[in-house]
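Can anyone check this?
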Amino acid sequence: HLFYADAEGTPGTEVTFFDIPHLGQTYRGTSDISTVSLRVRNSDSLLFWKERFNQFEVEHDEIQKRANRDTLAFRDFEGTRLILVADNGEKGVRAGIPWQKDDIPLEHAIIGLGPVTLTVAIAEPTIGVLTEVMGFRLAGSYPSLEGDYPDILIYATGEGGSGAEVHIETRPDLPRVRLGRGGVHHVAFRIPNEEEYDKWAARLKEFRLPTSGKVERYYFKALYFREPNGILFELSTDTPGFATDEPMETMGEKLSLPPFLEPNRKEIEEKLRPLILK
């Protein structure tokens, strides 16, 4: 796992990448986590990022409205679909702590994760899991930007806001996704601690949703299950967190290994490919 997050590894700010050489390209379709969004403070930041994308030749769209928010959609160099979303003072999940060890001005820094979009052929089964099992509620809708297709539905949880939403796009015209390079493997939802984890495990069993059972990720406990359209969901504890094995001040500056792999550090580090940062 290659984790990116805010300066403190705050839950709700993390994006994880898997390095899988020679993986084929994703073929887009349904049963897909089709876009992931990243929050910025305001619409002025979108102008900053648009110029930066031009500078580094990152493919992007124009600034557009989605769910009554200013957004800037872009693709990374492997085709991952990402969207910057301007908070503009909206209430909801608090912003993260901006990373200060790069050349991005703090006022334009990414401050957390925004809505995730799920593209499905039939929306009702996925909506059922979100509302009946996971406690989401319908919070609105907005027109599809892809053409004459059903409106995209907004489901929110907790205090709502861009950091607590799932958007449902219905596209019965598409084939099923074939995941590969540039695709999104799963989406994780936060739970506070291990006590709540056990309650959620029991709840999923009550609704007869098969799960992975408890998965120890060292920094958190994870539980995986698939909703009826086949999209992989993860429930992940906030605790113990990324500061478990290294000080906050130097977090992310070296390879972190769980204790059982520490004896193999030299061998593992020798096989790592360098990261090219822009």
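Reply from J.R.: I decoded it. The CA atoms of residues 26 and 108 lie 30 Å apart.
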